[in-house]
Amino acid sequence: MITYDVELRAPQLASIVATMAIILIVLYSAYTINEVLASNAPLIIPFTLGTAHRDRIYCNSQTLDLYIPSQSVAHPQLPLAIFVHGAGFTGGDKSPPFLPTFLNALASAGYAVASINYRLAPQYKFPAQIEDVKCAIRYLRANAQVYGVNASEFFAFGTSVGGELVTLAALTRGHSVFDVGPYLNESSSLTAVADMFGPANLTTCNCFTNPQVQFGDNLSNMVLASPSHYVHPQAPPILIIHGVDDACPSPNPCVPESQSIQFYDQLKAMGDETQLVLVQNMGHMFVQVGPQSINPSLPQIAQDIVTFFDQYRAGS
């Protein structure tokens, strides 16, 4: 009788062990998935120089982060620098890992900094991206008193297609066909911009593997997305920064150095204020090429942007 009871419980025990094993596997899998998702989650940029207002919704359900340095108490009308990320209109986020270098340089110099998200392809084709950038400018200008920024001193800087977008926003002035949506009583103008390795002429760039992803079937939109198409006299000042080892075609994201050189020449021919900084040993997106460090360094590039913007502040 006792033997019979032991034999009856053995399969029950095995079943319990198997069930527990399945539960543990499920729990471990869920933990692993959460870890992967967390590793791909947008970074939370640390900011110790003042107050960070994160994930503010502005237009088309898009969000921005706004960093206000502590000196806003003594200087309640701070100039504002708006950052626009890159990644080919199809990816990227308002919190890239290199942003703190620029954020801290600008905030230490007394600038508030906004970093924005915008709608992405392929779901949203151009001009959704520039429409969002312009709407972000108008939103921030409409709320300038709320955030303690000077509505007449709006600057912008961007990387890759983010550089293209800030330049496009500057060259199309305060009210354009790209100004749609809310806050239309506000201007989307910019005082000056810094374009870091952004494409200037998309029809010659060879920067997109399949342009239909970004521009749909109407590839004439590539002309409308090209800052070179809008160059005119008395444009806002533009600082252009590009790595000499940024070359296309490439298996990695790229914008040829020639894009910035030709754009610079075009601006100079119009009599516009512009500067060109060619960074040695740098490919696309600040990637070091070869054994030597990029020159100027990333902190120096950030300081160059501060110096450039300072030239065009009120009273400079």
If you had to describe this structure to a student in words, what would you say it looks like?
By secondary structure, the chain is α/β, with parallel strands linked by helices. The protein has 2 domains: 1-41; 47-310, Rossmann fold (3-Layer(aba) Sandwich), CATH 3.40.50.1820. The protein is built from 10 helices and 8 strands. The chain has helices spanning 2-40, 99-108, 128-142, 144-147, 161-171, 202-205, 212-215, 221-224, 257-269, 298-310, and strands at residues 50-57, 63-69, 78-84, 112-116, 149-159, 192-196, 238-243, 274-279. Strand 1 and strand 2 (63-69) form a beta hairpin. Helix 2 (99-108) runs parallel beside helix 10 and helix 3 (128-142) packs across helix 5 (161-171). The radius of gyration is 25 Å and the shape is globular.
Biggest β-sheet strands, sense, barrel:
8 strands, mixed
How many domains comprise the coordinates?
2
CATH architecture of the largest domain: 3-Layer(aba) Sandwich
Give the overall shape, derived from the CA principal axes.
Answer: globular
Query: From the helix content, strand content and strand pairing, which structural class follows?
Result: alpha/beta
**CATH C-level of the largest domain:** Alpha Beta
Helix proportion: 25-40%
Calculate the mean pLDDT score and round it: 88
